[in-house]
User: Which sequence fits this backbone?
């Protein structure tokens, strides 16, 4: 990311992680990345400051998830891009925090017994959360691991009989993001753009 942007800000609430990151930046001679120890619910950045904001596997650890979305929206400039990824609550495989299968299908009260500091979001919950601040949200999925051998063995053999490789590469992602597979994917990535503000011009009489 440091190669694509003039300035980059890395934010983490854990100072130890920032110290490790600082060491890696120094070793790789990267000088355009600024590290801030701060809370994602209260970002120490000005309004309309960022062209791009990214939050990967953070929101499930945040107590006030709406605040994270609101702060990202506040800091973005018009037409700025916000990318957010999070593990899927209804993933059919082994959940990465609890190391248990199908734990996301339990009621919230029972889920808290296994990990009190993690709040997994489903596809619909992530969509509704992003829609609070952004008009248009696109959500993509990472398919469960056990779908990959199925795609590579059965589906590819089937599609290779009737279509070209180029068409095959365009069909499979669409199939994996269609209902109901997207609801049981390993994780979801939401991408949203902050729309321009259409303020009425001030007229003087």
Assistant:
């Amino acid at each position: 990311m440091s190669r694509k942007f003039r300035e980059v800000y890395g934010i983490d609430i854990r100072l130890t992680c920032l110290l490790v990151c600082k060491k890696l930046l120094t070793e790789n001679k990267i000088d355009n990345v600024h590290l801030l120890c701060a809370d994602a619910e209260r970002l120490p950045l000005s309004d309309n400051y960022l062209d791009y904001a990214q939050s990967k596997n953070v929101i499930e650890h945040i107590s006030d998830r709406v605040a994270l979305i609101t702060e990202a929206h506040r800091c973005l400039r018009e037409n700025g891009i916000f990318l957010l990824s999070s593990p899927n609550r209804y993933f059919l495989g082994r959940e990465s925090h609890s190391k248990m299968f199908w734990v996301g299908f339990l009621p919230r009260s029972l889920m808290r017994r296994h990990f009190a500091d993690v709040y997994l979001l489903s596809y619909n919950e992530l969509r509704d959360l992003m829609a609070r601040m952004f008009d248009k949200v696109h959500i993509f999925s990472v398919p469960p691991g056990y779908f990959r051998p199925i795609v590579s063995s059965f589906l590819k053999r089937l599609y290779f009989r009737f279509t070209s490789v180029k068409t095959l590469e365009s069909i499979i992602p669409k199939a994996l993001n269609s209902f109901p597979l997207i609801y049981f994917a390993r994780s979801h990535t939401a991408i949203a753009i902050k729309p321009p503000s259409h303020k009425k011009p001030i007229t003087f009489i």
